[in-house]
Amino acid sequence: ASADVGALTNLENTTLGQAISDLLRESNVTTKTAAISIPSASSLVTVIKLPHTVSEKQFSSVVPLEARKYIPLPISEVSLDWWPMPRRETTEESALAPHEILVTAVHNEILSRYRELAKAASLRADFLEIEIFSNVRSIFGQELGSVLVIDWGASKTRAVVFKHGNVKSFHIINRGAVDLTNNLMHSMSMDFKKAEEIKHTVGLLGTGANRAVSDILRPGVDYILSEVAGVVFNYGKQYNETVNKVVLTGGGALLKGLQEHVAERLRTEVSLADPFAKTENPIFLSETLRSAGPEFSIATGLALRKLKEGV
């Protein structure tokens, strides 16, 4: 508990479970069921292609064999799932196109660890879900074009291209919001707490005496955006389509000036995720929830699934 607010920690399940129990008690939450998101960094999400000559009846035997090429572990050690991605066109040409299969895999030890965490918090995990699927559920409605989601986390940033609600491209960048704080901390010789405070106060909009803060933060942001631009380029090359909208989510998305900077760098429409738009809430809380939304996209997505399934 001695870590600064915003700093990365790695707590044991017993400690984290107790913290969750304390939070639920102090919030007067009485539920004993939960839904858990699995970090993208602890999972594999990829799209594989199968020849059009493979029938849907053969998928169950062919997909696990093909998935082995992408999973650096014995298949027996992971939980594998997959979904055929729907074809949006029914032309003769599209009928000859390869089948696209969305494949996910999570190491069984990771799943066991999260189930043990739920048990340590005296909760029952009704389901576990890779976080990017929670994100898409909370963010999107009926978008028809290709949408890029930049999930700006603490230690990692995830770039995901969706179309018609399906994952088309996915990439993890091993830099995040904490790296920006560390850059500021080292460059300006201050402690983490002070650097985090200045980062949130000034962001990329520093002028006058604060311009140096933005000048330090910007290269870290631009490194991440250069990786994101590569994802967009490769997607366009593979599918001959352009990304026509960008949605920012995650706590790092709240950096002042980031939305405008991303729009300038990627030259497209950029918005902040607003997951609470899919919920009913008092009008006087609307602005607060809209501002906090990017930090709660995953949690909201989990809750929406749980409500829909009635579990």
From TrEMBL:
Domain of life: Bacteria
Pfam families assigned to the protein according to its UniProt record, in alphabetical order: PilM_2 (PF11104)
InterPro entries: ATPase_NBD (IPR043129), FtsA/MreB (IPR050696), PilM (IPR005883)
Matching NCBIfam families: pilM
PANTHER family cross-referenced by the UniProt entry: CELL DIVISION PROTEIN FTSA-RELATED, ETHANOLAMINE UTILIZATION PROTEIN EUTJ
The protein's name: SHS2 domain-containing protein
The organism of origin for this protein: Candidatus Nomurabacteria bacterium RIFCSPHIGHO2_02_FULL_42_24
